[in-house]
Write a structure and sequence with these properties.
globular; Immunoglobulin-like; mainly beta
Length: 248
């Protein structure tokens, strides 16, 4: 048995060796996600795209992830976040307005230990990719919803909690939305999740647009940082056609 285990371990080594050169967290899934989520476009692994994650996911249904790419020069056109080994890898895509800092925090689900990626597409058409590895006992994507076990969750659906906080010349927005974010992987419960969000000024200018996917945690939380705006409005839509809004 010991010899067989050793042979299995050795057989796994070529998988890591086949990973893309320069990848800080080698993964055989990179090529697949590069084509599917980034359109196969030019990319560079960039240390200036910093991913803050815990070393171990104590609760795989609520894993905090922070993307900080404020060291990148110029503006970015899009940010894509994904967990490579999730059954639903894509977490979100963010389209920034001109006054949104390259800073985002969100809570996600993970099913097992996995590489986490954040890619920002610069104005030059190159994706700048940040990477992190998070260990986990697993099951965050297939565990039953905690929200659905709470009495009266339907009456709280779409409620937004949070506010705006001063950060020098900037404003940090922190918020949480009451929603089960069902991903369709738990028996008998269909997909029911927030699929779109927009952050706007009080005058209606779009500060950020987000396409959301069921890898976002239930009762999702988000943090943004804005330049020069102390108030904003949040507009939400889910895949059942429900719409919600809140002032921050």
């Amino acid at each position: 048995m010991r010899r067989r285990s050793l042979l299995l371990g050795l057989c796994g080594l070529p998988l890591l060796a086949a990973a893309v050169e320069g990848d800080p967290v080698p993964s055989v899934m990179w090529d697949y996600h590069h084509k599917r989520l980034l359109g196969g476009e030019p990319f560079v692994f960039d240390e200036r795209v910093k991913l803050g994650v815990p070393p171990f996911a104590e609760d795989a249904r609520q894993v905090p992830v922070e993307v900080d790419a404020r060291q990148l020069p110029g503006r970015f056109e899009r940010l894509v976040l994904w967990a490579e080994l999730n059954p639903i890898p894509h977490v979100l895509t963010l389209y920034p307005g001109k006054d949104l800092e390259a800073l985002l925090a969100v809570r996600i689900r993970i099913e097992q230990a996995t590489a986490i990626r954040a890619a920002l597409r610069g104005e030059d058409g190159v994706w700048h990719v940040g990477s992190a590895w998070i260990d986990a006992a697993g099951g965050g994507c297939t565990a039953p919803s905690v929200v659905r076990a709470q009495a009266g969750w339907e009456q709280r659906l779409g409620q937004v909690h949070g506010g705006a906080f001063s950060r020098g010349p900037n404003t940090r927005l922190r918020l949480k939305v009451d929603h089960p974010m069902d991903n369709g992987l738990v028996g008998g419960i269909p997909e029911f999740y927030l699929d779109h969000a927009e952050l706007r000024t009080l005058e209606g200018e779009v500060l950020a647009r987000l396409d959301l996917f069921p890898a976002v945690s239930e009762n999702p939380s988000f943090s943004f940082e804005l330049r020069g705006h102390s108030h904003a409005k949040l507009f939400l839509h889910d895949n059942n056609g429900n719409e919600f809004e809140a002032a921050l």
